[in-house]
Write a structure and sequence with these properties.
Elements (H helix, E strand, L loop, with lengths): L1 H30 L7 E8 L1 H14 L7 H8 L3 E10 L4 E8 L1 H29 L8 H12 L3 H8 L7 H8 L1 E8 L2 E8 L2 E12 L2 E7 L12 E5 L5
Antiparallel strand pairs: 1-2, 1-8, 2-3, 3-4, 4-5, 5-6, 6-7, 7-8
Length: 241
């Protein structure tokens, strides 16, 4: 009888050990997978709405032909600035990170914004000229020639020098996003310690990792995120896929 009891206990121990091992293996390889943030990530910072508002307000100030904010956004299209985020693990859920705004991407986005704005400006100016009874050509080429004759520069150059700042200064974006330091991922929270100039700044953000996407949901605050706060979606670069 005692022998049967020992065998039964032994079998139970083996089963418990097997289940525990399987559970630990699952937690290690699968459940904790969303905490492995290592790799090179890229995100596109949307500048369209901000540029549209700046252009819209400026046109209203100079009393140009009425245009809606939605129409201005459609003129500008999708304007984005690239952000690079590199995460290097030094232990299971900790490591070092580097994050920076791509200056070339910012310059290209700024140029694209003004070129799109120039198209809208020429069209609106042509419409205003027609309303005023202007008898010469009012198409894009004719208005471009008129702007060059009047201001001694192209429409794009005129808007860049005399128009609104469509994008925030590169330095402001760099101050907000650039930096390096250490990170820790735990329970859906990404904690980044920014180091530089003798000052350490800690940023805590909620995150979701889904396949090859890392979604930062904004910094943790006492109040819930407002409607104007959008998640930042980083995509793992092809070399890391």
């Amino acid at each position: 009888m005692a022998k049967k009891v020992r065998i039964t206990v032994f079998i139970c121990l083996v089963l418990v050990l097997g289940i525990s091992t399987a559970l630990l293996a699952y937690l290690h390889f699968f459940a904790s997978g969303d905490r492995d943030l290592s790799g090179e990530w890229t995100a596109d910072l949307d500048m369209t709405e901000q540029a549209a508002v700046a252009a819209f307000v400026w046109l209203q100030d100079i009393e140009a032909v009425t245009i809606s904010l939605e129409d201005m956004e459609s003129y500008l299209g999708d304007l984005t600035v690239r952000i690079d985020l590199t995460m290097d693990r030094t232990s299971r859920f900790e490591g070092n990170f580097r994050c920076n705004i791509q200056a070339d991407s910012y310059a290209a986005c700024n140029q694209a914004a003004y070129e799109a704005f120039a198209t809208a400006f020429r069209e609106l100016l042509g419409e205003r000229l027609r309303m005023a009874g202007y008898e010469d050509g009012t198409d894009q080429e004719a208005v471009e020639a008129l702007v060059a004759e009047t201001f001694g520069m192209s429409t794009v150059s005129y808007l860049m020098s005399c128009g609104p700042a469509l994008l925030p200064p590169l330095e402001d974006l760099q101050a907000q996003y650039d930096g390096s330091g250490t990170f820790e991922a735990a329970e859906g929270i990404l904690i980044r310690q920014f180091d530089g100039d003798g000052i350490s700044v800690t940023r805590q953000e909620r995150y979701i990792k889904k396949d090859f996407e890392l979604i930062l949901l904004g910094e943790i605050e006492t109040a819930p995120p407002g409607p104007d706060q959008y998640p930042m979606v980083y995509t793992l670069s092809e070399s890391d896929n």
